[in-house]
Amino acid sequence: MGKYKIIGWDIGGANIKATKIVYSKRQNKIESVLSTSKYFAMWDKNQNPLEVVAEIYQNFKEADYFAITMTAELADRFSTKIEGINFIIDLFKDNFEDKKIYFYNNQAEFLKAEKLKDNIEKSLSLAAANWTASASFLAEFKKDFILFDMGSSTIDLIPVINNKIAALGTTDVERLKQGELIYHGFLRSNLSNLSSKLPYQGQMIDVINEYFAATADLHLLKDIITSAEYTIRPADGGLKSKMAAASRIARMISLDLNSITDSQLNLIIDYIYNQEISLIYNKLLQLYSRASLNLQIPLLINSEAAHFKNDLKMRSNFKFLELAKLIPVLDNNILTTTSIASLLLKKIIGKDLVKVVRLNDE
């Protein structure tokens, strides 16, 4: 066999993501990298994730190896984390018996399914470990950095020092405490979590604590995303237009578009956006306040995080480096799944990734 064909999987609560890597042993290089993502509501017990996984696999055609990470174990369809983890292990183990299957944990280890059987501690280490794959992959190419990876629901802030992950937390609870995980994302986050009050007619009005609007609405109105990039279901199930997004935000303080002027609404939108920037900024300062870190250590940012770099630089002299500009293979490919597939390739061929993945000059 002259090629290794690997699919990296990231099984999330709202999306199933995958990347296929094809590596030529004769040429000692990666021939192709292709990523895809499919929406899947893991919390809906009436839907079967195997259908989406099988569809993605059929579109990729063939592979010999699977590398798998997950965050879906927290979905409402499961009563405990271990139930969710075992469900995902069995999903792959029982339906792809001809594949060499590896799961990635929060200690940056690949584990085979048979090693996980009846080992609750090892199995629990698989929970929400996709950040470990991303940071470990990037540490192959950059010595010191903080990964600033913004997804649809969360932000990962992962320090790497001397090519080693320097995170203080491993579980989600620990990472939340250490400021390494923020439950605020690019599309799906409830805007009522950003501010308890909004300015209107000279007063600060209490925000109604309901899911009326999401970050997708805010970012659409700030021209950060387009309607085509509004890929979640709106809070009210309505349109993904600017007018519909404005109506949803007005509803946060019990208004509609007939009872608020454009200028009043734009002021509210700007206020919420500044609250969002403040949230991210404060978490970055919390991280940089550690003795081992300083502002000279760059933030490696994905395409979503890149939208906020100018506003953040106005507050502190952060240094930013966009991932796709450093590692071109990440352009139009998914970080977590490209990372985990690449790390398994490294394990298989026993070579440093810097020798097989092309970099751009910084």
TrEMBL record:
Coiled coil: none annotated. Pfam families: Hydantoinase_A. InterPro entries: Hydantoinase_A, MfnF. Residues 67-255 form the Hydantoinase A/oxoprolinase domain. GO terms for molecular function: hydrolase activity. It comes from the Bacteria. Gene3D superfamilies: 3.30.420.40, conserved archaeal protein q6m145. NCBIfam families: one_C_unchar_1. This is Uncharacterized protein MJ0840. It comes from Halanaerobium saccharolyticum subsp. saccharolyticum DSM 6643.
